[in-house]
Amino acid sequence: MNHRLHRIAQERQDLNEGIRSFFRGRGYLEVETPLLVASPGMEPNLTPFETLVLEPNKHKHPAGLITSPEYSMKKLLGAGFEKIFTITKVFRNEESLGGNHNPEFSMIEWYQQGADYHACMDETEALLQALGFKHSIERVRLRDVFLELADVDLDDTDEKRLQEACKKHGIVWDLSDTLSDLFYRLFLEKIEPTFKGRHLFVYDYPSYQAALACLTPDARYGQRFELYVNGLELCNGFTELTDARQQRERFCEEALERQKLGKHVFPIDEELLRLLPSMRTPTFGNALGIDRLHMALKGYTRIQDVLLFSGGDLFY
Predict the structure, then answer these.
(1) How far apart are CA 232 and CA 99, in angstroms?
(2) CB atoms < 10 A from the CB of 311, how many?
(3) Using one digit for the tens of pLDDT, what is the confidence trace for 232-277?
(4) What is the reported pTM?
(5) Half-sphere exposure (CA, 13 Å, Cβ side) for 195?
(6) Per residue, what are the HEC states of 60-102?
(7) Predicted local confidence at residue 311, as pLDDT
(8) In terms of CATH, what superfamily is 3-315?
């Protein structure tokens, strides 16, 4: 027997059982969602795996593997489910093979109606503690971090200001960069590296970085957070946007950005938009990578260390 593989399999079984026990103990219902859908996502920064569904009569239906179960989960919320979670595989193309990335990975995603992203941060921290995480987790507003480390006030930014900030810090940028591109260049160079050695929730992302989230009262930020454990990003959570008109506008904006990037533009999920208004406000959702959680809890440094089969092994 390969003892390393056996150890990893046992650790993952224990982790999945711990996750299920935590959510069932809080009244959540476990659900299953499809992996193959017509609209796998609109986010410009993600590239789904694409395929065709073929019927015996030769009819073809373009489809893709999910980058997240989010759309399906929200449809269930719109159908009246109150507290749900799923453990599933998700797929993202144009990802590195190794390090912190794998094109196929495991995710726990959960939603609760009647609570916002602050309650979601509370529950996420409680989940980690229940799974054996012994450290406290800081909470920092992203605007404060940008002011301190990049001398950028996210309350008042446009492309020109972010271009000037990139020049000031010696960060290479391109005239074709969008506001989101410039934000990410600064974030990846000046902000994210400082999270190493810290455990923190970073919250309130600019509105252009939170297409599926409710906005803060001043409308400048999305009610969104990410969790970092020793510099490793684990999850993305937010207070859900339930206004179908606003969501359609944001989908259209993302579709235009995908088009500019030369990426396939998937059809807008009309059923999702139809069901969104049936969700309560507030409602929170969170998507947490189980492979990275496994790494963080057990001290592994590469995603290959927690997988029985990794992309690096399969495609080289």
Answers:
(1) 11
(2) 19
(3) 999 999 999 999 999 999 999 999 999 988 999 999 999 999 999 9
(4) 0.96
(5) 26
(6) EEEEEECCCCHHHHHHHHHCCCCEEEEEEEEECECCCCECCEC
(7) 77
(8) Bira Bifunctional Protein; Domain 2 (3.30.930.10)
